[in-house]
Amino acid sequence: MARRNPRVLVFDSGVGGLSVLAEIARRLPGVELAFTGDNRHFPYGTKPAATLLPQIEQSLGKAMAACDPDLVVIACNTASTFVLPHLRATLSIPVVGVVPAIKPAAALSATGVIGLLATPATVDRPYTLELIARFAPGCTVIRNGSAELVTLAEAALRGIDPPRERLAAILAPFFDGPDGARLDVIVLACTHFPLLRDALAAAAPRPVTFLDSGEAIARRVEALLAPAALPAAGGHRAYFTAPSDDLAGLSPALERLGLGAPIVL
Ligand code: DGL
């Protein structure tokens, strides 16, 4: 019997994971995609890791039971920066985690001044500080945590444009300090933020490179699943962990990605 197309579960607190899912879909059309937004526990970026761990385990368990994936992508920097060792020890399938793109940013920066834009939790995680110490030792890394930008990205996927002055205010700490004039790369270290890439670029006081991990994650999934020469997959689905009135507003965005109507787990 022919084997079905490989199935990948893309998990996040909310719609940020869709920025990663879009990269996987673009690179690997033969992969069947099951998105899960853990809206029951959203947002992750303002909560302690100890609170989130059982919540993530519960929601991921439900999502895995619903879709029986061959591989899981934790499409959330806030979660990946503490939960990966635990998940890799307990799950029997490969777990790919999205973490801040510090290493490529250090390689790309001509000035050695990098911005790290993430959730308040991610900018202070020991894992993040270790990434900086290991992969950007000679760089100045300006860390900037914003929970507001997550909310603005959720709204944007529901058709509400982010106010330019709010984006400019969120970006200001990168440019206002003594090293701001030399900053040339900003790492989008929350998967919600690439959804606002164009709006952020328009609100920045001058051109800089915005870098995220989406494409690298798609390459990693490709290496692990080797899904070459498969027929294009259908049957993509979008799951959410709580009923909510605001899920209906996501339908156009989900449809654009071929995900169908939201399904509540
Ligand atoms: N998308 C998530 C990340 O990559 C976090 C959003 C949230 O605060 O829940 O960090």
As a whole number of angstroms, the C-alpha radius of gyration is 18 Å
Distance between the termini: 30 Å
Q: What is the beta-strand fraction?
A: 15-25%
Largest sheet: 6 strands, parallel
CATH architect. name of the largest domain:
3-Layer(aba) Sandwich
Number of domains: 2
Can you list the ligands bound to this structure?
Answer: D-glutamic acid
Name the helicity range.
40-55%
Give a verbal description of the structure.
It is a single chain. Helices cover 43% and strands 17% of the residues. The protein has 265 residues and is α/β, with parallel strands linked by helices. The chain has 2 domains: 7-98 and 215-264, Rossmann fold (3-Layer(aba) Sandwich), CATH 3.40.50; 102-212, 3-Layer(aba) Sandwich (Rossmann fold). The strands form 2 sheets. It has a 6-stranded parallel beta sheet with strand order 4-3-1-2-9-10, sandwiched between helices. Helix 3 links the parallel strand 3 and strand 4. Helix 2 (49-67) packs across helix 3 and helix 8 crosses helix 9. It is globular, with a radius of gyration of 18 Å. The model has no long low-confidence stretch (mean pLDDT 96). The structure holds D-glutamic acid (DGL). Residues 12-14, 16, 42-45, 76-78, 119, 122, 150, 190-192 line the site of D-glutamic acid.
